[in-house]
Amino acid sequence: MRLGGVWRRSIDERDDGSVRVLDQTKLPFDVVDLFLASEEDCARAIRTMEVRGAPLIGVVGAYGLVFALERDASDANLEGAFGRLFETRPTAVNLGWALEAMRHHVAPLAPHARAAAARLLARRIADEDAANCEAIGRAGLEVFRAIHAAKGGGAATLHVLTHCNAGWLATVDWGTALAPIYLAHDAGIPVHVWVDETRPRSQGLLTAFELRSHGVPCTYVADNAGGHLMQHGEVDVCIVGCDRVTRSGDACNKIGTYLKALAARAHGVPFYVAMPWSTFDGRLVDGVREVPIEDRNGDEVRLVTGLSAAGTSASVRLLPPEQPVRNPAFDVTPAAYVTGFVTERGVFAPAELEEAWRAMAKGAGV
Questions:
Q1: Which position among 196, 243, 250, 331 bears the catalytic label?
Q2: With CB atoms counted within 10 Å of each terminal CB, which end of the chain scores lower, N or C?
Q3: Dihedral over alpha carbons 17, 21, 25, 29 (to 10 degrees)
Q4: CA proximity to 181, closest of 274, 94, 244
């Protein structure tokens, strides 16, 4: 996608074998490249949220396994690295999916052949993610075209609300929920985006950064404003990404998504979830009870980080250290509140997901 007038991916492989990513903890004020060259680098980047977004985490995890095997390709290290990388972010199913794909691919090989095979597969996973996200964008563009046409088309502005960051920073390229927005903007549809701040990690900053970089009009709003905007007819459609989707159509995404879905249902606003099929977890049925929800460090709530008056990065304490805090990182939106899932294979109602998944597994090995 476009960054400072230059087209690039969120992760790319360098000549020395390392991979380059953006340090998302420094955005939107500083654009800082990180170069990951070891399993430990990749694990740290995932755990500290230097890289975020389920699809991107999966690719970084895959490269982490590459680096581990380049150091030691034994069975013991393959299993050990798999476990260490998986534990960094257990909620995002893409991480487990990518690591399992890597392990399944290289485990039958002789140790001396594993590292090279792993690197080729990591590249392929990255390329497929970019292609899938573009396909998600094209499927979502048709949804947006229909909603825009129902408003009268032409110069009518299509107002979209999104939560967290599901753009190219969260994937390899294009993004999931933001891909249809980019394509709608590029196709000449007047689109405007309401960007939720997404406390406590404020991933909305990343979404606004992306949209501005691409020239898409957007307005940053407090998380609590979404219901008000819908109540007053200022939102035409909601679209979010996801970290895991069950076969019943329950969608796990960043904390606060569920409240937006409830408000959308109350005010008749379509609520879509953009999902690559790698995020689908056919093992689970009841997302509320079965999806593991990550509880993160309470200091993410107690502290807020930004620029000081002097223009330097600074953290400000909102609460005393002794104040108890609960910090669940995700919530689950039940299928009943989801209008449809926008995937690289088209748009599906929640009730259609399991049948589509079984058909793909039977016909294409998905």
A1: 243
A2: C
A3: 130
A4: 274
Classify 2-127 by CATH class: mainly alpha
User: Start-end ranges of CATH 3.40.50.10470 in the chain?
Assistant: 139-364
Measured CA to CA, the distance from residue 366 to residue 361 in angstroms comes to: 4
Question: Residue 220 carries which DSSP code?
Answer: E
Establish whether the linkage from the previous residue to 108 is cis, with ω within 30° of 0.
Answer: no
Domain(s) of CATH 1.20.120.420: residues in the chain: 2-127
Residue-wise pLDDT for 206-260, tens only, equals: 999 999 999 999 999 999 999 999 999 999 999 999 989 999 999 999 999 999 9
For the 139-364 domain, the top CATH level (class) is alpha beta
pLDDT digits (tens, 9 = 90+) for 102-141: 999 999 999 999 999 999 999 999 999 999 999 999 999 9
Does 127 qualify as catalytic in the annotation?
no
Tell me the two tokens of residue 113.
């052949």
